[in-house]
Amino acid sequence: MSVGIERLSVYVPQYALRLTDLAAARDVPPEKLTAGLGVQEMAIAPPCEDVVTLAATAGARLLRAADVDPEEIGMLLVATETGVDHSKPVSIFVHDLLGIGRRCRVYELKHACYAGTAALMTAADWVRADGGRVRRALVIAADIARYEIGSPGEPTQGAGAVAMLVGRAPQALVLSEQSGTYAGNVHDFWRPLDRREAIVDGKYSVECYLDALAGAFLAYRGLERPPLAAGAALTDRLVRLLYHTPFPKMAMKAHRRLLEIDGRAVDDDAAAASYRTQAAPGLAAVARVGNTYTASLYLCLAALLEAEGRALAGERLGLFSYGSGCCAEFFTGSVPEGVEAVADAGVAALLAGRTFIDVPAYERLVRGGEAGGEPPADFAGEFVFTGVRNQRREYARPGALAA
Ligand code: CAA
Questions:
Q1: I want to staple 141 with a disulfide (CB 3.0 to 4.6 A). Which of 55, 178, 204, 295 is the partner?
Q2: Strands 355-356 and 240-243
Q3: DSSP letter for each residue of 52-98
Q4: Is the model's pLDDT at 369 over the cut of 80?
Q5: Pocket of ligand 1, candidates 26, 82, 201, 206: which has the most ligand atoms within 8 Å of its Cβ, to mutate?
Q6: What number of other Cβ atoms are within 10 A of residue 256's Cβ?
Q7: Which atom of ligand 1 is nearest to the CA of 324?
Q8: Whose CA is nearest to atom 22 of ligand 1?
Q9: Phi, psi at residue 142, to the nearest 5°?
Q10: How far is CA 284 from the centre of its chain?
């Protein structure tokens, strides 16, 4: 039985900041951000958007594009590290906003940026387990990445959500049942319960990411069926490699490390050529959105399929997911014939319609936090966080507020 992703839909907030503007405000050379980190723009959420509205908007876009009745969804998983309550999960707000039926298993998952993959794998296993009913799961990864203003992490912020329909008719990506995992307790990046912004040991987090990549990839190679001949490279057989991408330069470092671990004797020119062909095509959207934590890898996948789905039909992709703390997974998937019918995840249209703000406006939005309230006139989301009343978070459709 083929199980995998039937379709993906993306949502990113309406506002964006150019990293060249941020560089000027912080008095650093623009090339440090655009070439040194590889980031061009980052998405900024307005006060009326939180992780619930990001996730629900991506979910609504997906159900509409796939023409799926919300009653068909038997499992709803929301992966995030931007939770809104210590007890009440983001997923139950999303369940309500999307009108999903009562017969549904609903919960939120957390393990830093890895949780999106934890949710996808859990949903795929649940679909495979069957249980006597047609099983379709909705998996949504959504986050708002926040670091202190003026810190080295500041240019690696971002916001967005990716919704994935997981089932037995995977038109976007057939998931392989093999995957390699790696875990260990490290303090590279975390966010204590009383903080809005993450704490990060930046350089160490890059090392932890690369160590986890090696661990997960070697675990995958040990399970590969049929086994590869001794000395044969797996990466030669994967047409594209997608990485969790806190900033595009991280994916470039990861790709170089992967080629080495895979036994491909590569000099700098060969590594650069392989990066341009196998990894760079997956990075165009993240370079313009920034880090979306749990959603990052799946934003790469959605944008890649949207840009070149037809050309990738019949090909196999490698995917690497990393969550600080840490847990990581390397897995593969095959792009089915006919993928172009579902390849439009909305990425190009969203990026073309954004409003660029200046640094003072960005700082006002960040310092103001998620206050809730009226959406701006050019608001593109489908749900609004209206505020907290009686200790309860409240949401509405933008149209309902205007009425
Ligand atoms: N022109 C071109 N490049 C320049 C430059 C210039 N004028 N000046 C500097 N650079 C280059 C540097 O050489 C460096 O490149 P290399 O890494 O290839 O050597 C790059 O710009 C970054 O510069 P610095 O080394 O000075 O590093 P920084 O102080 O800017 O911090 C960072 C970089 C540590 C990644 C920081 O942005 C950070 O802490 N980010 C958040 C943490 C993060 O994203 N970690 C990634 C792994 S953890 C993970 O993946 C989970 C997650 O999502 C958070």
A1: 295
A2: unpaired
A3: HHHHHHHHHHHHHHTT--GGG--EEEEE-SS-S-SSS-HHHHHHHHH
A4: no
A5: 206
A6: 18
A7: 51
A8: 36
A9: -150, 140
A10: 14
